[in-house]
Design goal:
Low-confidence stretches: 164-171
Strand order of the largest sheet: 1-2-8-7-6-5-4-3
CATH topology: Alpha-D-Glucose-1,6-Bisphosphate, Chain A, domain 4
CATH architecture: 2-Layer Sandwich
Largest sheet: 8 strands, antiparallel
Structural class: alpha+beta
Order of helices and strands: EEHHEEEEEEH
Number of helices: 3
Helix content: 25-40%
């Protein structure tokens, strides 16, 4: 479920998604910063630009749009990770006026709830009637890409578990 609300020039984004996967797999996908562009639609590049031991800085470049409105984004965000629980992010530089938010991971066993909350103020013009749709489509694509990757990484684990379960029930 993706909700996007516009208040003035800010967009408030709220997403909750339940995935059939273990928390470790979900966390692994969220923190695979160098490979995000491989599974998040519209993302051209994603990489950590800080040195080990320094606060984590993530540089991302992407493109989104709807029909005739195309927008390129560039951002460097400071990340604060609480392992297996949350990733807070705040814009340091880029072509947005501001961006801050959090990914959070809740749950256990084979069901995990993934939540994304953010407030974004674009540094470029988005027409009022089209802006929320562009933002919603972009966020939906990002979340769906993350969910697909979680599913892809979960499938081999499920396949590995099935033969063990089948052989133990055959005894």
């Amino acid at each position: 479920m993706v909700q996007v609300q516009r208040t003035g020039e800010a967009y408030r984004i709220d997403v909750r998604l339940s995935v059939q996967s273990e928390r470790q797999v979900v966390w692994g996908v969220l923190t695979d910063y160098e490979n995000l562009a491989k599974f998040v639609p519209g993302m051209r590049s994603s990489r950590i630009i800080s040195n080990p031991g320094e606060p984590k800085l993530l540089e991302q470049k992407g493109e989104s749009g709807l029909m005739f409105v195309k927008v390129s984004t560039e951002s460097v965000s400071r990340l604060k990770e609480v392992p297996m629980q949350s990733i807070q992010f705040e814009l340091v530089s880029g072509n947005l006026k501001s961006m801050r938010g959090e990914w959070s991971v809740e749950g256990h066993d084979h069901a995990t709830v993934l939540a994304y909350k953010a407030e974004v103020v674009p540094g470029f013009a988005l027409p009022p009637l089209v802006g929320p749709a562009v933002m919603s489509q972009n966020i939906k694509g990002m979340v769906e890409g993350v969910a697909r990757e979680i599913g892809r990484r979960t499938a081999p684990r499920v396949q590995q578990e099935k033969p063990a379960a089948a052989s133990s029930s055959a005894r």
